[in-house]
Amino acid sequence: MAKVFLMIDGRQVESEPGKTILEICRDNGIDIPTMCHLDGLTDVGACRLCLVEVEGVSKLLPACTTRIQANQVIHTQTDKLKKYRRMITELFFAERNHICAVCVSNGHCELQELGYKVGMNHVHFHYLNQKCDLDASHPWYVMDHNRCILCTRCVRVCAEVEGAHHWNVMNRGVQARVISDFNTPWGESITCTSCSKCVEVCPTGALWSKQTLQGKMEKHPEKIAELMEKRKMSL
Amino acid sequence: MNRQDLQLIAEQTNIKHKQYKHKVCVCCGAGCIFSGSKKILQNLQDTVKAQGKKKDIEVVPTGCMGPCNEGPLIKMMPQNTIYQKVKNEMVPAILQSHIIENKPIEKWLLFKNSKQKPFINSLQAPFFKKQRKIVLKDCGDINPESIEDYIVSGGYKALERVLFEMSSEEVIAQIKQSRLRGRGGAGFPTGIKWETVNKYVADQKYVICNGDEGDPGAFMDRSVLEGNPHRVLEGMIIAGYATGASKGYVYIRGEYPLAIKRFELACQQARKSGLLGLNILGSTFHFEVNIRIGAGAYVCGEETALIASIEGKRGNPRPRPPFPAEVGLWGKPTLINNVETLACVASIITHGGEWYAQIGTPKSGGTKVFSLAGKINYSGLIEVPMGTSLREIVFNIGGGIPGGQKFKAAQTGGPSGGCIPAEHLDVKMDYENLVALGSIMGSGGLIVMDETSDMVDVARFFMEFCVDESCGKCVPCRVGTKVLYDILTKICQRQASMKDLEKLEELALFVKATSLCGLGMAAPNPLLSTLRYFKNEYLNYVNLQAALQPS
Hints:
The complex is a heterodimer of chains A (about 240) and B (about 550). By secondary structure, chain A is of the alpha+beta class. Chain A has six helices and ten strands, in the order ββαβββααββαββαβα. With about 550 residues, chain B is α/β, with parallel strands linked by helices. Chain B folds into four domains: about 20-125, Glutaredoxin; about 145-360, 3-Layer(aba) Sandwich (Rossmann fold); about 365-450, Ubiquitin-like (UB roll) (Roll); about 455-550, Up-down Bundle (de novo design (two linked rop proteins)), CATH 1.20.1440.230. Chain B has a five-stranded mixed sheet with strand order 10-9-13-11-12. A four-stranded mixed sheet of chain B has the order 2-1-3-4, with helices on one face. In chain B, helix 14 packs across helix 15 (about 355-360). At the A-B interface, strand 4 and helix 2 of A face helix 18, helix 19 and helix 20 of B.
């Protein structure tokens, strides 16, 4: 297939057409932080961390959903983008109640890693201190909304990979919550297959296995990409 | 029905109308109905019947006439005399004096409270004189629930011409020539949009009419749908022909029950008359229209969210590209236009693109409907050529500010727009000029504010609206608007410092730059524009706080 050439951060890069900007960047070792993106799932462009500047386009474009075009000139690491990525991270922390010291995911948390990566030393905005519920009705797993960042990975993995469509989102704006079925306790769900895929892909400590101690919850979101790859091969 | 039948209906209806010597139009737009026009209509019909004048006087319910504040309105034809705030007990007197004795009753005339002498022919009043009605041409003159009335006033003629005399390329060429731009607010050239959809090859394409008007203070689309639904329907069918779509969806917000009812009726009538469905007017073109009712989410006015909502999904927007013209409803190429945009189409086809282009400015052709509201003498629905100055709209058409107050600012574009201060009163209203002033044309809501309005509170009000209406998908809009709203509240409570003010501006620019859809991108606009023109009001709040602090 004919290759296309484009410039990313002053480097000439070649690729097959039809890929997303994020794929090209990852292929070429250019690091763009992401949160809602997960290999193996459909991209939604919701977290806005992967925004990049494309010359000739007035608005910033999400790298995960934007397909490349030949001869594009793309900047992924400008000061402005770095600042915005830090601000997004701060808003993540300001939105709900992320207290690493008592979290099962402490040390293995993608949000925590993101904070280090973008150089966040403190949150400049006031905390919203939302009152969030915790659902521990499932025999094996817990959903703690205090730690949820609404990346919707769980919603997508359940619908697209497991095919159960157990998770969904209700309400709007800051009131938005991930819900089990029609906002009924997870333990009473008739759609949940208890496959644990949602727990594995959750980037924070929002979804976790019971009887896990502080800092001991290690997850393997990369399993989904492997699974999808194997399914493709078996077809 | 075929082409000849259309002509026949027009002639027969014309003969029917000509039997009457007088016509009394009763405004039955939602505004006038709320102030009691349905009772007036009934009363008029009963009185005419009781007096045995049924053969002379025709009483017609119509769509919105414009000066909504003065309702219920009735219009006496052919003199074009409008009576305002009509009460039941006034009805016999008006019939007796105006029609039988041919003596208009001056004390009840429209705009009797204005400084000028009220006009017998109301169209001579400045409110109407400065307007140019294209979208609202028949609104207020014909019965919106009668397809015959629409046909007799030239309706479906454009469709007939398109189906039998024009190719889809020719239709698109006319629209391009007209320089018509999207009336939903963004102002994208309509012709180019149609051309793009036409270009894509697919087994199925769709036309969507966006009637999810949600800006506070805006009621243009509602009035058009209520006052002349057939006009929108005709525009849609023409759009379907031009783009190669055979199915259409009209998305009307659930808060507009009358608009939904009348549009549904219009579709039924058109279907019965062979203007909708298979082989329209005997041609080879098929087009079907479905109505979808919005459930009250502002964000569903955003095109990708609207499409998701029609598909039965949660009304969340998605990143573009791909644009709906390529990947739209159920993944098919989809044309999505605003109600007002589609309502312009029939006139452009009838009179030609060149005619329409000449009315507006070099960059945007035609007219724009505004809904005037707020601190203004005559609030209501108006239509003016693009490029009309704000001063003309507020002071000539709207009759200025009540109570001898001074004009402070006009808010355009609702929660996505901004405020235009008094020093820019002479701005020529078009897309580019308003963007240069930090506002947007928006869908046409125009809220006038006087000296008593607190601009920080205005910004806070619109931010609260955006916090409520954010879908919650992307982080900058979901969390950013809430943080902005909290800072604005803090300022209003005189608790904020200069540092908060800096943070406010920084965060506002961030939300504007990084949000996923138009709602988030435009949410900081009211805040940024008030900060630009009325910074002293923000500083007053902050400085007062500093002054109260013990040194």
